[in-house]
Structures
1.
Amino acid sequence: MKAHSAQRVVRAQAAESRPSPARLYALILFMVLSWALNFVIGKVALREIPAMVLPGMRIGLAALCLVPVYLWDARRGPRQRWTWADAPQLAIVSVCGITFNQFFFIAGLSRTSVGHSAVIIALTPMLVLALAAVAGQERITPAKVAGMTIALAGVGALQVSKSSAAAATPLGDLYAFVGTLAFSLYVVAGKALSTRYGSIAVNTFAYWVGALTLGPLAWFERASFRLSYLSAAAWWSLAYMAVFPSVIAYLIYYHALAYMPASRVSMFTYAQPILATLLGFALLGEPVTPSLVTGGALVLAGVWVAELRA
C-alpha cells in the first residue's frame, strides 16, 4: 500500500511540474520564430559587420552565454568525465558544427536571399538521415531515397529564376549548402559524444572551439573594420544572433524534447523557412519568386518523405 501511495505521489508531482500544452506550444513557436528571424537579423548585421568578422563575434558572445548554462547543467547530476582520448573527435566535431557551419552560413547569407538560405538549411534533417545511413546509424529505405531526390530537385528549382539575382546567387546558395552539410556532420558525428557527456557540455565545448577558430578571421578586415564604427542597430543585431537562436531557442528545443517526441518537435521546424521567407519579404523587401515557392515546397516535401518511418 505504501509503495502504491508513493507511486501516486510521484505521478502527481510529475503532472504538476509538466508545463501546460499552451505554454509548451508557445515556447516552441517562440523557438521557431527566433530561428526564422535570425536570417533577417543576420542581414541587418551584415550591413555593418563584415562576413569574415561576424561569425567570430557571434560565436564568441554565445560561448560566454553558454558558460553559466553549462555550470547549471553540471550541477544537475554526474556526467562522464572528459578524457584526452576524445579530444581529437571533439575538436573535429566542433570545427564542423560551429566553425565551418557558421563561416559558410554567414558567407552564404551575405550572398543570397533570406528565403534561399532558409530553404537550403531546411535540408538539415534529410542530410542527417543520409550521413547517418553512411555511418551505419540509419537504414536506407525507398522513402529516404525518394525524399532526398525530391529535396535536391527543390534546391535545383531555386536556381531557375533570375529575377532575384541581386539578392540570391548560386555561390551564396552553395555556401549555405556547405554550412548545412557541416552542421549535419556535427549532428551525426557528435551523437556518441552527446550521449556520454550531455548535449549542453558538447555544445559549450564546440562553441568555445568555434570562437577560438573564427575569431582570428577578423585580422583580414583589420584595415577597414573598427568596433567603434558600429551603430546601435548592429550591436543589437549581434546580441540577438548570439543569445536568442544560439542559446535560448536551443534550450527551449531540449526542454520541449523532455515532454514530447522528437518527431513532433521537428514538425514545427518545417515552419522556419516559411516564416523566414515572409519576414524577409516584410522587413527587407526581398521578392518571393515562383522558383522560391516551388523550391521551398519541394524541399519541405522531400524532408517530410525522407523522415517517414525514419
2.
Amino acid sequence: MRPHNLRYLTRLYSAKASAEVEPLAGTVPPHSLYVVLRTPKPIRTLESRPISPLRLDLQRSLLTHGGLVNLGHISDERAWARSERLCSTQLTSHGSEPEEDGFDDEPEEGQDEERYDAVAFAPDRPPLHLRGITAANVTERADTTRLVQRDLPPLRRFAPGEYDGPVHIYVCTHGERDCRCGEHGSGLADALMAEVKRRRRERKGEGWDRVVVGEVAHVGGHKHAANALVFPHGEWLGELRAEHAPTVLDAIAAQPFSNAEGLTRLPLLPEHWRGRMGMSMDEQRTFISQHLTRSY
C-alpha cells in the first residue's frame, strides 16, 4: 500500500496534476440519490451495455432528483434479508411506519417482465429497501414509496457509534465494460466477501453481520479501478486492490456512519477517495484540499 503522506496526497489530489494523470478526488458524478436494482445475473457475466428498459425508466423518473440507478448483484441472501429487516425496524423506531403502497410484490403467473427489488441511498439517511419494481409501477414507486430524497423518512441525527443499521459496499466488477474492472474489481469483491465472512465468524458482536458486500455494473472511472461505493456513508473509493480489503473494512469500523456533521465529516481512506454523494465535483476537490490542509 502506498504511503499515506502529505507529499503523495498533495500530488494525488492537486488540480495541477498532469493531463495524463487525472486527480482521483472530484471524479464522482454529482448525485443526491443512488439506487441499486438487485439482479440475479452476476455482474461479471453481464454484457458490456446491458439492456434494461426498466432501469432507464427509473433513471428518467429520478433525473430531476439527482438520482443514479445501477444494476447490482448480491449473492448473500441472508445479508440482504437482514438489511431489509434492519431498515424496516429503523423506519418504525424513528416514527415512520412503512406504508402499504398498493402494488403486488409478486408478478402475475406467466408474466415475463423486468422486476427488481432495490435499495436506495441518499445523503445522511439510512438505506431504504423497495420490493417489486416493475414497468407498471415504476413512476408510482418513485413517488409513493419515498424513493426520492424529499420523501424519505424524517431525518435522525446519528452521532458516531449510534447507527446500528446496515452498511453496503458495492464493487464494480463489470469486466465486459472494462477489463480493469473485471480484474481488479473482481479480486477486491472476492477479498471483501471473504474478509467479512471471516470477521463474522471470529469477531462476533462487532457488527460485521450488518455488512452487505455486492457487485455493481459500470460506475464510471475505469482508470480508477477497482472502485468501491460505501453506503450509507456515500463514499466512492478508487484505485483499490484485493489486498486493500481489510483496510477498507477497518476504515469503516473506525469511522462508522454518522450524519451529525453532515457533508463535513472526514473522508474514508483519503488516499483512495474519489468523492461523496451530495457533493458537486468542484466541492469534492475543495473538500479534500481543505481536509489535507487541516490534517497537515
